Amino acid sequence: MQAWICNEFAGPEQLAWQTQPTPEPGKGEVRVAIKAASLNFPDLLIVQGKYQMKPALPFVPGAEFAGVVEAVGEGVKHLAVGTHVAGFAGTGGFGTHALAPAAVLMPLPPVFSFEDAAAFLCTYGTTYHALMDRAALKAGETVLVLGAAGGVGTAAIQIAKAAGARVIAAASTDEKCALCRELGADETINYTTTNLRDALKTLTDGKGPDVVYDPVGGDMTEQAFRSIAWRGRLLVVGFANGQIPNLPLNLALLKGASIVGVFWGEFARREPQANAACLMQLAAWYMEGKIKPVIEHKLPMSQLKEGFALMGSRQVRGKVVLVND
């Protein structure tokens, strides 16, 4: 097998594409022949040594992938050789093969493409957990999505619409705003040319959004939270801006608002049955055509560094997916 090896926490530039022995699965493990893997922002943080977890060196990065079960270890009952699966294992996806615990693999319906599946679990799992579980989103409520043209942002638009919410999508260019409207956003805000708070006041008749979905962080978080509705919920999804905001907590008091943390990976680990129910609903919506990953770039697996460069440019709409021939 071949894989991208991280030998030190020094960023994507030091990753090396190397030949490795093809591993055999142990108890409870499965070997997957990887067909596609997607890039997520935590993949960048992990190879930089900036993520919540630091894998033991050396390791193969790549949290999210899809492929075909090639071998199963002792005790694996629900998967068989030849089964198509999607996986979110934290690491291991950027190669031709991966070992993964069987528990983190989701069997795929026949209509699910490998590319879509590789861009599905993390972004849609995170977003469903955020909006439906943590925020208890109700039909008719208004959701503000920050960074709305990115991977989790495009998922948030689709899931919020599937749940019957009104969606205001905020993005950094007119082109990204156009994509958001194509995905179903009711209103869009280009926050590089328009004052976010003024636009929200106009679009919500002064009420503000009920839910703010925030994978961006930085200064945008406080602006959005100052505009939130009474009993609103701010979903802390991530910090793609690179800055963790310092929020004045009196804002939460004055608005009767909640600041809600979203950590889907830990939710999936601690509450596997609840997570499985979420994924079942997402798969049903995919089959019904209500949700579908936005994939702007498909690259060969050998071009991982180019994929990281695209993601780092912050110009990608949706996801970057790497494929093996």
UniProtKB/TrEMBL annotation:
<dbReference type="InterPro" id="IPR013154">
    <property type="entry name" value="ADH-like_N"/>
</dbReference>
<dbReference type="GO" id="GO:0016491">
    <property type="term" value="F:oxidoreductase activity"/>
</dbReference>
<dbReference type="Pfam" id="PF08240">
    <property type="entry name" value="ADH_N"/>
</dbReference>
<dbReference type="InterPro" id="IPR036291">
    <property type="entry name" value="NAD(P)-bd_dom_sf"/>
</dbReference>
<dbReference type="Pfam" id="PF00107">
    <property type="entry name" value="ADH_zinc_N"/>
</dbReference>
<dbReference type="GO" id="GO:0008270">
    <property type="term" value="F:zinc ion binding"/>
</dbReference>
<dbReference type="InterPro" id="IPR002364">
    <property type="entry name" value="Quin_OxRdtase/zeta-crystal_CS"/>
</dbReference>
<feature type="domain" description="Enoyl reductase (ER)">
    <location>
        <begin position="11"/>
        <end position="322"/>
    </location>
</feature>
<dbReference type="InterPro" id="IPR011032">
    <property type="entry name" value="GroES-like_sf"/>
</dbReference>
<dbReference type="InterPro" id="IPR020843">
    <property type="entry name" value="ER"/>
</dbReference>
<dbReference type="InterPro" id="IPR051397">
    <property type="entry name" value="Zn-ADH-like_protein"/>
</dbReference>
<dbReference type="InterPro" id="IPR013149">
    <property type="entry name" value="ADH-like_C"/>
</dbReference>
<protein>
    <submittedName>
        <fullName>NADPH:quinone oxidoreductase</fullName>
    </submittedName>
</protein>
